Amino acid sequence: MATDSPKLTDSVEFPSELNVTKVLFGVGTAGLIASGVGYFLNHEQFFFSWLTSFNYFTSIALGALLLVMIHHITRSSWGVVIRRIIESFSSNLWLWAIFFIPVIIGMTTLYSWTDPSYYIDDPIVAGKQPYLNEPFYIVRAILYFAIWGWLGYKLHKVSIEMDRTNDWGLTTLLRKISAPGILIVALTLAFASFDWLMSLDAHWFSTMFGVYYFAMGFQALFAVLILLAFWLRRRGVLENTISQSHIHDLGSWFWAFTIFYAYIAFSQFLLIYYANISEEVLWFYHRMEGSWIFIGYTLIIGRFLIPFLLLINRDSKHNKKLLTISAVLVLIVHFLEMYWIAMPALHSQGISFSWMDVTTMIGLGGIFLGLFFRTYAKNNLVPVNDPKLSDSLAKSYHQ
Amino acid sequence: METQASNKTLHGVLAEFRNPKELLNAAETVNKNGYTDYDTFSPFPIHGMDKAMSLKKSKLGWIVFGHGLFGFFGGLAMITFMSVIDYPLNISGKTLWNVPAWIPVLFELTILFSAFGAVFGMFWLNGLPRFNHPLFNSERFKRATDDGFFLCIEASDPQFETEKVGQLLKNAGASAIEEVYDEEDEA
Known about the structure:
The complex is a heterodimer. By secondary structure, chain A is an all-alpha fold.
């Protein structure tokens, strides 16, 4: 094996003629400006749209951060060729914190628990005051982004350093950061989801909500990675490096986490539905009322049933067409699900799409992908000196 | 055993190879020469052997899928009959078509039947269970579970001719060749 270990044959530099970064930043800025106009027209709608879109991308970035750490701690070799992509997503989490500022500004609009007149006659919400109060909410948010930002930045930086110094000892450092990192991110992610989305209904609680948020983001992450891998290949970037077997692995992860998502989302629903305790069931009641039920069914069909059946066959897990359809579908439904979680707090009477849902998605999406491409294009596209790179390149698909 | 008694029928020609690489090449040669009834035996899986032998993808997945569907729809029919048709029971005011509550049961039945399909389907595809196999008559073949690499062309192959097959395997680099007979029960 060692004698004929494969070498990188592709250029590890991002082609300079592809100026996606500029285009994405441009589109993103336009979206943000349009959303800013929306703030003056209808600030309630703006804040809710912003929260929805912000969580859409943050959940994906957190999935990326966890995947990088899982990668290091399991010393896996399959994904070394795509690791730089995942690292680039999570390395910008510290910058991404800027886009949380509108949520803080709009806190009193978004969260009913910030209003003293709301909880004064409500002993249950009043009892949650030690946790659900404005200063602590802000402190927690800063803490989350400090932890995620540092981890994402550090893991990316050390990996880049290994490219330069060829010091394999750095893999030990990466592992040492990742081991406690997974635990800390798992906890902070769960609490962040409680703060940002669950507390929109201050009465409601679900101990599974953190896992649910993770499951959504992680599934969507693989959809993003699959589409990115196809896009890069079409542009002739890393054509011989990201092979069919890597696509197949991504497809398998995607499929596995499609099932995981369904399992978690359904478990949360079933326990609450079956116990039928009014305090817990009200959240789902609002989300099954009127036209909201249509999104509920769309989630089951679009996010589980269709990708599950399309990709169940082994050969379809590297079939470009089927993977693309499933990935695009999941990314659309990921938005619908965030919308379905957040928006009934504003539009309790039924679905009411606003143009600001689109502009905040375009704005934050453009910046999110722009930040990714900026980081990705600046460094080697593959960790060139990783000790497991040749193992990863040697992966061949066999039936 | 010394003489070729009439109650012995030829099972095939067994050839031993020194290492996985030689076995792989031999399998390729045999495959290219158009033989269909042959098999290779090694103590561990050899990468690329499926391709060398032009083996098709296993049908097992489809068997499992069919069983899974049976488990799901069979379960659905069962629960519908029991708790909607035969003995409708109002449980905490929920509808009789209490589908969310059925899902764990349907899920379990799907998994159970899929597992049955996987295990018994694998047995069936492998021709198991059986009491004996003619290849076990070969003393040398016992090493197939240890350090021996074997290829056997069976007499049932339409092209089979003992001389020709022996020559082919010898040319492919076999280190030992023997004819394996199927022994009938003496009783």
